[in-house]
Structures are given as C-alpha cells and as structure tokens.
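User: Reviewer 2 asked us to show a designed sequence for the structure in our supplementary figure. I'm pasting the structure tokens here. Could you produce the per-position amino acids so we can include them in the response letter?
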C-alpha cells in the first residue's frame, strides 16, 4: 500500500502512451497550465511518486514549500517504491502523470528508454543526498558482525549455485550465534532492494572466484545466482513500509531488519545498527563511504512539466535549499553530499540538463 502526503489529484483524461507529436505536446501542456483544478483536466500542484526511503525527505521539503509558497497547491508525495514510481513517471506526459520520481538508486538505462518511448524524452536527474542500507536489530537484541559474504550466504536462494541449507547464522559463520535466520526487508520493487543486491549481495557472491568469472561469461546467470533471495521464510518481504520492519524486529529481538539509514536514526531508542565489515552504519561512515552500504539518493523531473505545473521549479529550489549538512533534511536523517556535489546539483536546478544514455553508461 502506498503512503500519500497532501491532497488527491483531480480526475483527468488518460494520456496516450507513445511518442507525441510536437503540436499535440504543446497543446497538451498549454491545457495543463491553463485549466484550473475545479473540474477541468489540469492540476495546480506538484505530484511526485517513488522511493519509500526518499518519501520522508520529500515530505519535509513539501511541507516547507507549502508554508513558504501559499500561492501554490501543496505537493502530493506518494511512496510507491522506486521501481513502481519510475514506471508511473515514464508512462507519459500530461496532468494524469507524475511530474517527479523519487529514487533510492539511479535510473536504469532500460527505464530511460521506456520514458523516451512514451514521449518523456527530457528527464532531469538530481542527486539530493546520501543514505545507507542499514542492517539492524532490536535494542538489546541479536548482535551480528556482518559482511557482504555472510549476508549473501544467509539470504541467497541458491548460494554459489547450490541449494540453500543454512537455517541459523552459525550455519553461515561459526563465529555468529545459533539464532534462526529471519530477516525482514524490502520488496523487489524497492530501490533499497536494488541497492542491497548491488552493494551487498553481488559483492558477497563475487568472493567466490567462480562467481566472479561468471559475471563476465554469463551476466544473466550471475544475476540470478547472486541476487535472488530465499523464499523459505529466511527473508521476509515487508512491502514498501520501512516502519513496519522496525515494528517487526522490535517485536522479535532475535530477528534482523533492512531499511534506509534514516529509519535507523529515527528509531535509535528502539533499534541498533549492525556493523558491516566491522564498520557501523553512522552518518560519518556513510558520508565517507567507509560503510559498504552507502548509496546516493535521486529525484527525476519531467522537463516538459516545468513549463506547465505551477510551482514545480520553485519546488526543486526548495530541495536545493534543504540538502545542506545543517539543513532540514539532515535533521531527519539524510546524509549530506560533498560541497562539490551540492554545488553541481544546485546548478542543475537552474540549468535543467537532460539526462542521456551516455550519462548512465558513464557511471
């Protein structure tokens, strides 16, 4: 179930997918900008969908924006998960489609191509901060010194291509306790799950030389073996609700949860972070990328909607005013970017450069 912030969008006629002609696009955007929200097809507020990790940050930006921009409608922020959010974002242009997608991992090339195929051919990418994939347990609960290797061997459906037989953490590593492996984590549509695969599971899998070689010879098989999680109860999908994971692990102190660092910081009275390679998931360790689960957070914007949605440009400026180390986003758990990254992304808010295939392939 998605989380919503602010009012529901007015009903609008669906926008046909496919590449729109220039004339139709211009007419559609003029209609979007001109009609009022009292029963027409337009809307007068920003609509963003996407990551449950970015959701609390976007909500803070939206609340501050609404207070200081009373002439605009309050932004609607929905927590749909990164994958679902980008899919909705890429469906087309017009009042019945989101203006922005929040993402806890970078847009994939295939997603950018899907956007272009539906006429969303001018996408602006902004990095807004950093986060970490935190492993946690209840305060006073199970303590584990994890590594990408132990996490992979505990959670993989078929570790190194072999049947999963581990029932306890001790089965994976004799130095760990003999508690059952029960991990509550994000679903497959979540950017946190994508980051878990890339930053932890694949890294752990590649400690085996045969798996490292398989990545070069058969990447599809490598992804299946190295990123598919077990479905026998060892890993429990909790949907796009990180707060529910916090509730689950506090209810059972022998279990582990996986969520964004901001949820760990917000609940330090109830939960404790578990180290990865001996490094704790803290603000400084994520900012320096010493912690293995550190990752960037993004927002994506339709440049075409900048000319049509009242306040969209000002909303992006609100993001840029909020991401400093002593800003409102840091106060709710976002880890600030470097000064250089902040300056580069603040410039993008003004210049609105279009994301290209080459940009995604370069990193």
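Assistant: Here is a per-position design you can include in the supplement:
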């Amino acid at each position: 179930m998605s989380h919503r912030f602010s009012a529901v969008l007015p009903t609008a006629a669906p926008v046909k997918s496919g590449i729109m002609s220039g004339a139709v696009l211009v007419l559609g955007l003029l209609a979007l900008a001109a009609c009022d929200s009292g029963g027409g097809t337009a809307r007068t507020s920003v609509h963003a969908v996407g990551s449950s990790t970015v959701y609390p940050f976007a909500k803070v930006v939206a609340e501050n924006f609404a207070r200081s921009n009373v002439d605009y409608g309050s932004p609607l922020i929905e927590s749909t998960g990164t994958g679902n959010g980008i899919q909705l974002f890429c469906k087309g242009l017009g009042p019945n489609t989101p203006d922005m997608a929040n993402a806890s991992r970078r847009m994939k090339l295939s997603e950018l191509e899907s956007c272009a195929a539906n006429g969303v051919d001018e996408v602006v990418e902004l990095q807004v901060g950093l986060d970490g994939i935190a492993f946690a347990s209840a305060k006073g609960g199970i303590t584990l010194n994890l590594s990408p290797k132990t996490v992979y061997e505990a959670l993989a459906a078929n570790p190194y291509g072999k049947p999963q037989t581990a029932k306890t953490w001790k089965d994976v590593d004799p130095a760990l306790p003999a508690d059952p492996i029960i991990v509550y984590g994000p679903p497959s549509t979540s950017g946190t799950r994508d980051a878990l695969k890339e930053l932890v599971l694949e890294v752990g899998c590649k400690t085996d030389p045969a798996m490292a070689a398989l990545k070069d010879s058969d990447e599809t098989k490598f992804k299946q073996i190295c990123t598919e999680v077990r479905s026998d109860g060892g890993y429990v999908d909790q949907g796009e609700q990180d707060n529910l994971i916090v509730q689950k692990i506090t209810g059972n102190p022998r279990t582990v949860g996986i969520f964004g660092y901001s949820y760990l910081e917000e609940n330090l009275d109830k939960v404790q972070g578990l180290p990865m390679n001996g490094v704790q998931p803290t603000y400084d360790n994520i900012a320096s990328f010493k912690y293995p689960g550190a990752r960037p957070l993004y927002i994506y914007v339709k440049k075409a909607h900048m000319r049509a949605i009242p306040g969209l440009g000002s909303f992006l400026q609100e993001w840029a005013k909020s991401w400093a180390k002593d800003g409102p986003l840091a106060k709710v758990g976002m880890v600030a970017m470097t000064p250089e990254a902040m300056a580069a992304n603040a410039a993008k808010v003004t210049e609105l450069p279009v994301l290209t295939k080459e940009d995604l392939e370069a990193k």
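For the response letter, you might also mention the following. Residues 142 and 254 are 5 Å apart (CA to CA). The beta strands are 3-5, 47-50, 76-79, 100-103, 123-138, 183-185, 235-237, 256-260, 271-273, 294-302.
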